[in-house]
Amino acid sequence: MKRNTGLRPESMGSEIIRTEGLSKYYGDGEALVKSVDQVSLSIRKGEITAIVGKSGSGKTTLLHMMGGLEPPTKGRVLLDGSPLYEMNDSRRTKFRRERIGFIFQKFQLIPDMTIR
Ligand SMILES: Nc1ncnc2c1ncn2[C@@H]1O[C@H](COP(=O)(O)OP(=O)(O)OP(=O)(O)O)[C@@H](O)[C@H]1O
Ligand SMILES: [Mg+2]
């Protein structure tokens, strides 16, 4: 997995998101899967970043942890300086609602509902 970065020079700013040793492991023993292992990165305001990697390399897991949706096994996520997983669930939910937008891979649509 790697990261491609594009900068919009007019709006480059301070650090908006940072991860430190971010890891997510599933299972244990023989069945241990290190979905994301020790990712430390920093993204600045105005920076456009793409996370690129083959299927199963951990992109969705990483984004879910960065977006406040999935607690990590180890490490931390700081959004504008606030450590997401050191907040309680309801504070994190409120923070996420106000600060983070997500477009899901599978859209998360409710199949039997229609908007008119
Ligand atoms: N809930 C889970 N339980 C066990 N293993 C999981 C779980 N979620 C993800 N994994 C495993 O973690 C690894 C990374 O999965 P992830 O979905 O993050 O990859 P991805 O890079 O987003 O793949 P894709 O390009 O197919 O969307 C895979 O080996 C996957 O099988
Ligand atoms: Mg994915």
Report on this model:
By secondary structure, the chain is an alpha+beta fold. Helices cover 16% and strands 38% of the residues. It contains two helices and six strands. The protein has helices at residues 59-66, 89-99, and strands spanning 2-7, 15-26, 33-44, 47-52, 74-79, 82-83. It has a four-stranded antiparallel β-sheet, with helices on one face. Magnesium ion binds at residues 59-60, 105.
Give the CATH topology.
Rossmann fold
Largest sheet, spatial ordering of strands: 3-2-5-6
Give the integer mean of the pLDDT values: 90
Main sheet: strands, sense, barrel: 4 strands, antiparallel
Please state the structural category: alpha+beta
State the low-pLDDT regions, or none.
Answer: none
Keywords:
binds adenosine-5'-triphosphate, binds magnesium ion, four-stranded antiparallel beta sheet, 16% helix, alpha+beta, 116 residues, Rossmann fold
List the helices and strands and how they pair.
Blueprint: E1 2-7, E2 15-26, E3 33-44, E4 47-52, H1 59-66, E5 74-79, E6 82-83, H2 89-99
Antiparallel strand pairs: 1-4, 2-3, 2-5, 5-6
The structure holds adenosine-5'-triphosphate (ATP) and magnesium ion.
